[in-house]
Design goal:
Helix content: 55-70%
Largest sheet: none
Order of helices and strands: HHHHHHH
Number of helices: 7
Structural class: mainly alpha
Distance between the termini: 44 Å
Radius of gyration: 14 Å
């Protein structure tokens, strides 16, 4: 059972979120993506935790070589926790990497870059 005493999240959901994030920090995108597969966050998961999970998942997909999955995860993070996503340094790093890897950036990616306030690529 998940608990949220004093706005601190404890329980199986947070442990799963951390398991994905730890694999990302170890630069093991494949393991992180595998750990996230089939993972559904309960509706009562705090937005900042859910948003951070999808930011980590975007990084995992990028490390795994799935740019489309990375951008999709960023869009989910934006929907869940827009302010956190807009200003998070890992989002900026991920968006820059996506933009560098695309021969021609899509309008959608350019809009996301502008929304984040990233000026130069």
């Amino acid at each position: 059972m998940d608990r949220d005493d004093y706005r601190l999240c404890f329980g199986p959901t947070n442990a799963k979120i951390w398991s994905v994030g730890l694999a990302v920090e170890a630069l093991d995108g494949t393991t992180a993506v595998a750990r996230a597969q089939g993972m559904e966050l309960p509706k009562n998961t705090p937005r900042e935790r859910a948003g951070h999970h999808y930011i980590d998942l975007a990084r995992a997909f990028l490390l795994h070589g799935d740019r489309e999955g990375a951008f999709s995860a960023l869009q989910v993070a934006r929907r869940i926790a827009p302010t956190q996503t807009r200003y998070h340094p890992m989002v900026h790093e991920t968006v820059r990497a996506l933009a560098r890897q695309e021969a021609r950036s899509t309008e959608t990616l350019r809009n996301f870059v502008a929304w984040c306030g990233i000026k130069a690529m």
